[in-house]
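From the pipeline queue, job 12 of 40. The input is one protein chain; the requested action is below.

Action: predict structure.
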Amino acid sequence: MKVVILAGGLGTRLAEETTVRPKPMVEIGGRPILHHLMQLYASAGFDEFVIALGYKQEVIKDYFRSLYTTANDLTVDFSRGTIEHRERTKLNWKVHLVDTGLSTMTGGRIKRLAHLIGDETFLCTYGDGLASIDIAKTVAFHREHRRAGTITAVRPPARFGTLEIEGSRAARFVEKPQAGEGWINGGFFVFEPEILNRISGDDVMLEHDPLMSLAADGQLSVYKHEGFWQPMDTLREKNLLEELWKSGSPPWVRLPSVEVGSYADTGAGRRVVTTQL
């Protein structure tokens, strides 16, 4: 089952970062958020990716072109003119990088990937958010309900912290909890290829006619995710994800091979996270 990742938007609300790179390439813990997202899917056994590119697509292409080299050691023999890779890590990923246009909408980008999606069920998400979602359970839920699509519903993060009061006394502050009420689109989908027939062209937003028509036809299941979910639309949200990574136990990490608890003191009050792919 392929994983479609929508990674072509302009990311204008995060202009501090996206003037030089696309939003999926903004780094959390020294790795692009796109890489973290792919690890989440790969940890559930889904390791073939179709990435829909647009804005500054060359940055993403260059990253994957050089990833194997940068993740491993090299022996360069100048006398023989050879380069030998000495593997430290192995990613079983297959990554299709596809230009889907600069101004194409989210639904249109999926439509442009039809030749790679084929007639198979596929996963889909945006390239700018992380969650503690169990992908395997989401897929199992989709298969159980046998509808054309499954959307993940999440609790939106609260904009402000809360103040708990006991009588006339401030008891405690709680920093920005998940909202206790309401559900929103969490951006993790499972689709049957039928969704492609509901997208007429480049100007179609996935969130409008395709999803609305599926819902109207009773063909859209809802998988409720009560756990961690965080988009990265602003610099504040980017910094929040960075702090969660530095905490040593980022809630979106599901790979047992990712070590997040090992730190080195740089002597300037900074902590460096040691990671292993």
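Job complete. Residues 256-277 have pLDDT under 50 and may be disordered.
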